[in-house]
Amino acid sequence: METLILAIVIGAAFGFTLDRVGATNPNLIIGMLRLSNMHLMKTILLAVAVGTLLLFGGLMLGLLNPGHLGVKDAYIGVIVGGVLLGAGFAIAGYCPGTGLTAAATGRKDALWFVLGGLVGAAAYMLTFAAVEGTGLLATIAGGKATLGTVAGTSYPALWPDVPGEWLGLALAVVLGAVAFLLPMRLRGGGGKAR
Amino acid sequence: MPLSWRTGGLLLGLVFFAAVALVKPIGVSTQFVIFDGIVWDAVQPTVVEPSTEATGGYASPNAYLNKSGGKYASNIANPWNYSFVFVLAMIGGAALSAMLRGWPTRAQRTMPELWRANYGDSPGKRYAMVFIAGVLVLYGARMAGGCTSGHMMSGTMQTAVSAFLFMAGAFGAGIPIAVLMFPKED
Q1: pLDDT band, residue A189 (cuts 50/70/90)
Q2: ipTM of the assembly?
Q3: Fewer CB atoms near the end CB (10 Å): N or C, chain A?
Q4: Residue of A3, A85, A186 to mutate for B, most B C-beta atoms under 10 A
């Protein structure tokens, strides 16, 4: 029961925030990917920087249960799947979370995206055995790997001698700096494209 | 008007952190599988069945639903769990936000401005392309084991190696395709 209340509170906050930062607007997503409006890129970079900083800061201070981390497996299919996702992301301006939330804000094209998504997920379900047969899903880098060693977890590290907490804090600083330094647009200045 | 990237980024970062601190990292794309499975099981009840051998208590003849000790199969049998309710609440939260700030305009509800500038007004063309994009995105997300939320946001903030592989693929394909597909800005 308690977890369901958390699901409702955190889920609603996430959906609300996605809409407020402009992530439910496919124009901003496509603008980010065509490098003409970096608003969402700066938002995402800062969000990841804040999340990373609090996460590893909290772990170092012992305020956080390392058991709550959930690192995903690394395998070549992550790159291949990322390419497929990136292609659809560019065409539609939606990803799974923003497609669902955009549909909730009344966007009809997002409903078609969600329908396509349900078909895509079903297609994966039916072809999973064949995909597995290609070896694309065989884990690399030890599987659920992090960059450095994170105390209190059993995740293998890409660089075992580097303390993962400090590496996380360093990553947060770098991502935060990029968020501030990245210009609002990288190409197509002046508003009119030739 | 969206929030400034500073305020928006700070709030979004706090939500992603709160999720890990209180429960577990945010992820969305798995729930497309769970929803499909619920529908499939309703039509064909043999898709998910109780099993004493599966760690989750349920098994499926489908290899994907049956993997990891029938984890997906058991979530299909009992959808009122954290991850599924999270996604339902996320949909509600976005609707609430739009209700309070004002819905997108009629024209925006059909297609974004950049699409209209490059491909004209036909809603059918937009819906067909977005449907295909949806197929690609969820097929890709399931192959990758996560999407923008699970890999790009939650994964990067945990310094997961998989998150960097995912971003190389997603941005490596997404940026050139968006640049080529949307040459006109207005």
Answers
A1: low
A2: 0.97
A3: N
A4: A85
